[in-house]
Amino acid sequence: MYKRIRKQFNELIRSEQVPRGRCSGLEHVPEFEPHRHIRLLTFNIQVGINTSSYRHYLTRSWQHVLPHRNRIENLDRIARLISSYDVVALQECDGGSLRSGYINQVQYLAEAAGIPYWYQQLNRNLGQFAQHSNGLLSRFRPLDVTEHRLPGLIPGRGAIIARYGAEDDPLVLVLMHLSLSKAAQQRQLGYIREQIADYEHVVLMGDMNNHAEELLSNTPLKETDLVPLPATAHSFPSWRPEKALDHILVSPSLEIRRSEVVSYPVSDHLPIAMDVALPKGYLEKF
């Protein structure tokens, strides 16, 4: 019996009927304009589950598998928040499976927030049971968007790289969700380091499952000069923040006008926001 169930499960995962990563298209997305600053947000939304206590990891664990009537209401709360930002990095989204009511949460949040461009990266495909995804939401038209599978013993982690502005000197945003394992993080950040090596204006955003001091001192990111948020920018757990696991790291060419942990506890992580000014002289390139 076990073998039969296992075979059916594997066939479901391999099925061509299962939705893959998708995007909205760029037809109605405004060009990247020479604004003096860009409002950024990164948010691990925990597939729309409202977690406000450690006990909820047990009592609400079934919501990772089955739909719940309050999930849409929680997504609407998230949409109200992200509607104030220009570029949003989302982690732990569902791309449309049983647990989300077959709703692509990246698309839903983009449309509910009035953000014209969205890109869903499907990282772990469990068929109708779960569509583990990252998401990019953007008010501006990127030059290009590429998705990357991050290395690791257990597959299922990914990054989205979006470039904006001038082709010869772009603003590069990397949205990611790193593994829990330190060994895997080393390999994943080594890969990311290679992707950003030739660019001057870089932003790394996402749930990195580690503190900035460790990331910038003891991983391949030590070869960069990226600037972190203050060490006190704790984002996890949302009901009693003690760990700084979510980050926006920027090149020194980008002036940080404002950064904060947003007190908006609708997930087990709090969102991180940053207002970044474009480098001096960059506006004249458009």
TrEMBL record:
Record-linked InterPro entries? Endo/exonu/phosph_ase_sf (IPR036691), Endo/exonuclease/phosphatase (IPR005135), GPI-anchor_lipid_remodeler (IPR051916)
Q: Give the matching SUPFAM superfamilies.
A: DNase I-like
Q: Which Pfam families match?
A: Exo_endo_phos
Establish whether keyword Hydrolase is in the entry: yes
Question: Any one Gene Ontology biological process term?
Answer: GPI anchor biosynthetic process
| Gene3D superfamilies reported for this sequence | Endonuclease/exonuclease/phosphatase
Q: Is Hydrolase one of the keywords?
A: yes
Domain of life according to the entry: Bacteria
- GO CC field: membrane
Taking the record's annotation, the residue ranges forming a coiled coil are none
**Stretches assigned to the Endonuclease/exonuclease/phosphatase domain:** 41-269
Q: Which organism is it from?
A: Marinobacter santoriniensis NKSG1
Per its record, what are the GO molecular function terms? endonuclease activity; exonuclease activity
User: What is the protein's name according to its record?
Assistant: Endonuclease/exonuclease/phosphatase
Q: Which UniProt keywords apply?
A: Endonuclease, Exonuclease, Hydrolase, Nuclease
